[in-house]
Structures are given as structure tokens and as C-alpha cells.
Amino acid sequence: MATVNRFGWPDYVVLASVPVISLMIGLYQGLRRRKQTTEDYLMGGRDMSFLPVAFSVLASFLSAISVLGAPVEIYAFGASFWVNALSYFISVPITAHVFIPLFFKLKITSAYEYLELRFNRVIRLMGCFVFTIQMVFYMAVVFYAPALAFSHVSGLSLWVSVLAVGAACTIYTSIGGLRAVVWTDFFQVLVVISGLLALVIKGTMDVGGFGTVWEKAREGGRLNMFSFDPDPRHRHTVWSLIVGGAVTTLSVYAVNQAMVQRYLCVKNQRTAQATIYFNLPGNILTTTILTLLGLVAYAKYKDCDPLHSGKITQLDQLVPFMVLETLGVLPGLAGLFVACVFSAALSTVSSGVNALALVYLEDVVKPIYKMKKGNQMADGLASFVSKGLALFFGALTVGLAFLSSLMGRTILHITLSSFGMTGGPLLALFILAMFFPTVNSWGVGVGLISSLLFSFWLGIGTVISRPPLPILSLKTSECPITQTVINNITESVEPFVTSTIMYDVDNNMTSYSTGALESSTAAHVSRYRYTGLEIYRVSYMWYSSIAVIVGVSVALIVSCVSGGQKNPINPALIIPVWRNIQSLFGKKSKSLEITKHEARILKPYLGMVFKNFNDQ
């Protein structure tokens, strides 16, 4: 790698301030509420205000993977990914007006409580297990990936950074609970946006202004925003980015416990809906900033690609390298961007750790305690156990981040991709529970397993078979011609900067324009011939949609074969729009009848359901 500006002491000071301030916020929230109940610790007392929760929702999945990966996506494949931001116009209203009202009406704590109310305890535990797989491995790589990338360019020790940031995250999450997580998220998202804007503004100035950026992006074919090709194998189209993207984001915002927990920690349903609507412009803004950063990077390195000129060794180092070249000359600004990346990692991991602690307390520990002791767990003990669980999952995340260094790149791809592979099946599980009153637990269980198996087969098969990707032209015509440049032209790069985007430069080397080096490298470059299954070429943007279709289809078939739902179901557990459609045609499903015992249980918080029962 080429020599670039390294960190100075102002950069280290700025970087260190992020975990220190986050830790102070957590300690403050924990110490000012020493006698907090379990509900205070895990749900913020259900009275948190709009603004910090809205920022926390935005921060939770604005991970370091996104900050490092999205600009590389734009640099290599063009700005078409920005269209994915439009998918929020579909997923946000559905989340706000379909999922949030149901969760609020039931007054649940864990999203998987709903699955036991609708089906049985086995389905609840299956949902809990899938969520664990989804979050634990994702959080580990979220920590490891940015630490590895920045250790190459900043001189920071990989393990010191992982351990220090991981320890701070674990401590403030376990001590302060959800309030600490939400308020640190609020602080961290401001750091993330500040760091991104600093790099975009300084980078734009360096290349001659926004007009120059736009013109170079146009010349290089990076403004390929809208493709209406219906072929699902086309990597990015309007259909895959908006329709497929809507299903993918719905699996995050509608049914992921880290999100559900935030909706339920505010004072009322209207505030919860406002927090998710805040994320509509918020996500469009962050996606736009990341897209601009990718275009600025392309404008800066349009005629001298740093990968093939030997300045970096893999594409996931592009943003860190650009940071040190662009911001390294100004004391503290490079440190601000590194702080931005680690803030994004902290917000994701703290949200996941807190959500896992809640899920295991409510879905595993409390039921086992009641089965063994015959009574409910005391609130003081539950609060202590929840803090212990947060400490455990925080330590587990740091430990798995260390183990990530021992994995091969293919395994890292699969580990990181597991987040997307499990999101679709989980969404299918909740869609079946909410919209299909005739489906039974056998159908849902088999449907979930089938969807998971299909998703992992498709995801792992794609990673292993390495289908060709349409990487756009990158040039080295303005670089000094050295043997290092020539050697780097033929290197294969397999970064893991995003959970769904995997690059294979060898597969697409014939699309590169190497200028004066073209004749020198002809012998090294051969056209790649793909021999894998054609289904592996389907765009990753359709994975969640395919998983939902498989899960719902299998569940309906198995439920039909096994006799359907035989026991009465609470009307409160089914989405009202479905009941309205039934009543429109004068039909009444027997499975939706409510018993007096169920009405008596639900009366305290479902008065309307009880009233309807009495009126019948």
C-alpha cells in the first residue's frame, strides 16, 4: 500500500472521545435510575420521548458495514443503489399502520410473545432462535470489518480497537439499559452524519466542486440510476431495488426485535408511528450522502484506481484510504471519520445486545423459571438477570469478532450474509401469523424451516459459485506504470464490506479499461466462464422476497394437508384489514371466534375486543 498520512494525536483524541462519551452516557442513565425496574431497563419505562427514539431507530441499522460498503458499491457499480431509498415509501407506511398497531394493542415486550399467543411456545422459541442467529454473527462482523479495514490504513491496532470499543459498548449497554442505548444512539448518529459530511465536502472541494463530480460520474457511467429490465438476474433494477428492497427493509423495520423494542418504548402508538416516519427522510438522506461519497471517490480516482495501482490491496480499504488522503492533512478530521465508523458499529451492536437480552429474558429465562419454581420471577431478580444477559451477549460479540480473524473470506461472506438470509423467513413467519387465520403451527414451523433452508442454500451457493458481476470501468491510465501496478491488475478481491454485496474483480476483469497497461496485462487476464446454477445469478435484492414466498407457500400447503387451524383464535391477533375483508363478503371464520376465558384475559388492555364479544 502506498504511503499516506497517518493518524496524529488530534485524530486519536477525537476517536477516543466517542467510546468515552458513550460510556459516560450509559453510566449516567444507569446511576440516575439505580432502582429501575425490568421494564425501565429493557423498555425505557415505555415513556421515552420521540426525538431520541427516532434517531435510535435510524442509527440501529446504519452500521459500519453500510458506511464502508455503500460508497464502494457506488464506486464499482454506479449510483443505481440510491433507488433503494425509494423502497422506504412502501415499507415505512406498512410498518406504521399494520405492524405497530398490533404490537401496541397486545402490550407485548418481545415480538416473539405474539407468536406464542398466535401459535404455541415451540414457534415462539423457533422465532427466538432465528433472531439470535441473525443478530449474533452479524454484530461480530460489524465490529471486526471496520477494525480490520482501518488497521491497514491508520496504524490502529486491530485488537486494541475491537477490545476497547467492545468493552465500552458492553458496559454502557449492560448498566444503562435501553435508555442508555437510545441516548448513545442519538449521539452516535450525529457523529456518523458529521463524519460523512466532512469527507463528502472536503473530497468535493479537492476534485473541483460538485459540477466536476457530476460530470466525471456521467462520463464514467456511474449515473445509471434507473433500469426497468424485468430480468431478476439483473443485479440492480427499479423493480429489485424498490419492490425487493421494500420486502428486505420490511423484514428489518417491522419484525426485528431491536426495532419493535423501540416502537414499544414510547408513550403511545402515534409517537411510535412518528418515529418510523422520521426514518423515511432520514434513510433517504443517509443513502444520498453515502451515494455522493461513492461518486466523489470515483471522481477522485477516476483515472488512477487505487486497487490496481497498488495503493490498496482490497476494495474494502477504499474509503479508509480516501479518508487519510483527503482528511489526513487536517488535524482531527481523519479521526472524526474513524469515529463515525465506530459510532455506526456501536449503535448497531448496542441495539442488538439490548434486544437479545430482552428476548432471552422474556422468551427463555422467565418461562423456565416459572416452570421450575411455579411462580413468576421477581422484578429485582429479572432486572439483575437482564443485565447479566446483556453483559454475556456483549462479551460474546467481542469474542466472535476475534474469531472472525481466523475465518476465511468465504466464511466471512456467509456469516455476514446470514443477516439477510434470516430476515425473509422471519418476516414470512409474522405475515403468516397476522394475515392467515387458517394456518396452523405445523404449517408455520415447516414453512419457517423450508424458507431458512432455501435462503441459506441460495446465499451460500451464490458465495461459493461466484457468479459474474457487472463492475463498471476503472482506469489506471494516469498512474505511474510500475510492476506493482501490473501485478495488482490480476489480483482477486473478495471484500466483506456489506451483507449482500460481494465483489469478484477476476470475474469481471475484461470490463476494465487499463489504458497504457492493456497490452502488458493481456496475458494475465482471461474471460471468466460461469458454470454454476442459473438461480445463483438472481439479484440479492430478491432474496428476502423469495424467502417470504417459499415460507408462506409451504406453510399454507402443510396447514391445508394437516387440517388447518382447529382451535379458536383471538381476533386481536389477526390484522383488522383481514377481518374487514371477511365481513365485506359476509363471511365469518370459525377460527376467529373468541372464548369468554380469552376475553377475560384480554379485557385490561383490549377493551374494544371485549365489548365486541359482549355485543354478539
Structure commentary:
- The protein has 616 residues and is mostly helical.
- It has helices at residues 9-31, 38-43, 50-60, 64-77, 88-106, 111-118, 121-154, 158-207, 210-219, 238-253, 257-263, 269-301, 318-326, 333-373, 379-404, 409-435, 441-465, 483-489, 518-521, 543-561, 576-584, 596-602, 607-615.
- The longest helix has 50 residues, at 158-207.
- It is globular, with a radius of gyration of 25 Å.
- The termini are far apart.
- Keywords: Cell membrane, Glycoprotein, Ion transport, Membrane, Sodium, Sodium transport, Transmembrane, Transmembrane helix, Transport.
Distance between the termini: 76 Å
CATH class of the largest domain: Mainly Alpha
Question: Unreliable segments (pLDDT under 50, ≥5 consecutive)?
Answer: 483-527, 592-616
Largest sheet: none
CATH superfamily of the largest domain: Sodium/glucose cotransporter
Helix share bin? 55-70%
Query: Could you give the count of β-strands?
Result: 0
Overall mean pLDDT stands at 79
CATH topology (level 3) name of the largest domain: Sodium/glucose cotransporter
Domains (count): 2
CATH architecture of the largest domain: Up-down Bundle
Can you tell me the overall shape? Answer: globular
Radius of gyration: 25 Å
Number of helices: 23
* Residue share in β-strands: under 5%
Order of helices and strands: HHHHHHHHHHHHHHHHHHHHHHH
- Content-based structural category: mainly alpha
InterPro entries: Na/Glc_symporter_sf, Na/solute_symporter, Na/solute_symporter_CS, Sodium:Solute_Symporter_SSF
Protein name: Sodium-dependent multivitamin transporter
Keywords: Cell membrane, Glycoprotein, Ion transport, Membrane, Sodium, Sodium transport, Transmembrane, Transmembrane helix, Transport
Transmembrane segments: 12-28, 49-69, 81-104, 125-150, 156-175, 182-201, 237-255, 276-299, 333-361, 381-404, 410-435, 442-464, 540-561
